[in-house]
């Protein structure tokens, strides 16, 4: 902490966001009690109204940030309609936040298949049984669907449903926020014109 009350930290010296994000996620993994990869995902519906919900980040690299979902769910339909999305990580134990915005692409079938195989068997069954985001007449109806797919795939591999895959946000903006005394936080935003561009770094007022 400096005499002015402003936070200081090596993160302000970084010139590339993905390594910095990886370091912060690693620290969050050590300090957060539950789901350090939990992230608020924002989309927009056909009427321009925003929606936000929590998902789990499953992968990231220089190409972007990946999560998986049912493409027939509300978030799946909304992303397919705009091919844009935003994320916000908040790690309370570290008093840090990361915001990400950009266009979205669908991961390859090979990527989706590889991740799907790592999921618990029950989760793979659930991907078939759940008509995500649509009205459910009763809990029994869901349990019946689970039982039916469990019987169908009692032996051998469970194939990935065609409606279940992953999205990758290819960021054009990544902002790192670190708590400071008296609300005088540190904010560094990395910006680029498109997902193939080079990054500019801007310090923002709190």
Top keywords for this entry?
206 residues, Pnp Oxidase, Chain A
Walk me through this protein's architecture.
The protein is of the alpha+beta class. The protein has a single domain, classed as Pnp Oxidase, Chain A. It has helices spanning 17-31, 74-82, 109-118, 121-129, 139-152, and strands at residues 38-44, 50-56, 59-61, 64-70, 84-91, 96-106, 164-169, 173-178, 186-191, 200-204. Strands 1, 2, 3, 4, 5, 6, 7, 8, 9 and 10 form a 10-stranded antiparallel sheet that branches. The two termini are 16 Å apart. The model is unreliable at 1-8 (pLDDT under 50).
Strand proportion, as a percent range, falls in: 25-35%
CATH architecture: Roll
Total discrete domains:
1
- Give Rg in angstroms: 20 Å
Explain briefly what this protein structure is.
This protein is an alpha+beta fold and 206 residues long. The protein is 28% helix and 32% strand. It has one domain: Electron Transport, Fmn-binding Protein, Chain A (Pnp Oxidase, Chain A, Roll), CATH 2.30.110.
Topology, please?
Elements: H1 17-31, E1 38-44, E2 50-56, E3 59-61, E4 64-70, H2 74-82, E5 84-91, E6 96-106, H3 109-118, H4 121-129, H5 139-152, E7 164-169, E8 173-178, E9 186-191, E10 200-204
Antiparallel strand pairs: 1-2, 1-5, 3-4, 4-7, 5-6, 6-7, 6-8, 8-9, 9-10
Helix pairs in contact: 4-5
């Amino acid at each position: 902490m400096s005499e002015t009350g402003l936070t200081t930290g090596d993160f302000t010296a970084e010139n590339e966001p993905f390594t910095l994000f990886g370091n912060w996620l690693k620290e969050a993994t050590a300090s957060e009690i539950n789901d350090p990869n939990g992230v608020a995902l924002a989309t927009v519906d056909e009427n321009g109204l925003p929606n936000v919900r929590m998902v789990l980040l499953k992968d990231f690299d220089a190409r972007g940030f990946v999560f998986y979902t049912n493409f027939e769910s509300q978030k799946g339909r909304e992303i397919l309609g705009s091919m844009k999305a935003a994320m916000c990580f908040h790690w309370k134990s570290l008093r840090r936040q990361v915001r990400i915005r950009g266009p979205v692409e669908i991961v390859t079938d090979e990527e989706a298949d590889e991740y799907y195989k790592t999921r618990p068997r029950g989760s793979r069954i659930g991907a078939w049984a759940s008509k995500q985001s649509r009205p459910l007449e009763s809990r029994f109806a869901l349990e019946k669907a689970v039982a039916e797919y469990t019987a169908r795939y009692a032996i051998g591999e469970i194939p990935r449903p065609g409606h279940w895959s992953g999205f990758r946000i290819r960021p054009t903006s990544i902002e790192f926020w670190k708590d400071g005394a008296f609300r005088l936080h540190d904010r560094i935003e990395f910006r680029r014109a498109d997902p193939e561009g080079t990054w500019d770094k801007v310090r923002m007022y709190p």
